[in-house]
Amino acid sequence: MAFGSHVPTVGVDDLANGDFLLDVREDDEWQAGHAADALHIPMSEFVARYGELTEAAPQDGRVNVICRSGGRSAQVTMYLAQQGIDAANVAGGMEAWAAAGRPVVDAKGEPGTVV
Questions:
Q1: How many CB atoms lie within 10 A of CB 76?
Q2: DSSP readout, 20-51?
Q3: What is the pLDDT of residues 49-107, one digit of tens each?
Q4: How many other CB atoms are found less than 10 A from the CB of residue 25?
Q5: Measuring CA to CA, which residue among 43, 40, 61, 60 is closest to residue 52?
Q6: pTM: predicted TM-score of the whole model, two decimal places
Q7: Residue 107 and residue 9: Cα distance in Å, rounded?
Q8: Among 1, 14, 34, 102, which is least packed, fewest CB within 10 Å?
């Protein structure tokens, strides 16, 4: 799914350890495998839980938004940009994250998988 050049995008290789990561996948996807330090707010609950993001996100940093492959996170990225938040869609999502050899953990902190 292409969203055009108006969606700010960042590659997995461009993310440094400690960069803020928002995972918008659903609970079952998160439980199976996610980036260890990511904040999890499912897209289906995003508007209701928006305050959690504004409390956790860095005041002067970028919110990097990730899902499985990049479609849902692109939608959330566009929404955040409309709210005046510096946000970028992580190209390729968790599939690209795992393919790049970045750690993926399950809900128990053990090695996880991307579903």
A1: 21
A2: -EEE-S-HHHHHH-B-TT-EE--GGGTTTTHH
A3: 999 999 999 988 999 999 999 999 999 999 999 999 999 999 999 999 999 999 999 99
A4: 26
A5: 40
A6: 0.94
A7: 27
A8: 1
Question: Does residue 111 contact residue 105 with C-beta atoms inside 8 Å?
Answer: yes
- Opening angle at CA 61, ends 54 and 51, nearest 5: 5
pLDDT in tens, 21-64: 999 999 999 999 999 999 999 999 999 999 999 999 998 899 99
Those residues with Cβ within 8 angstroms of residue 10's Cβ, 6 or more apart along the chain or in another chain: 62, 64, 88, 89, 90, 91
Residues contacting residue 48 through CB under 8 Å, at least 6 positions apart: none
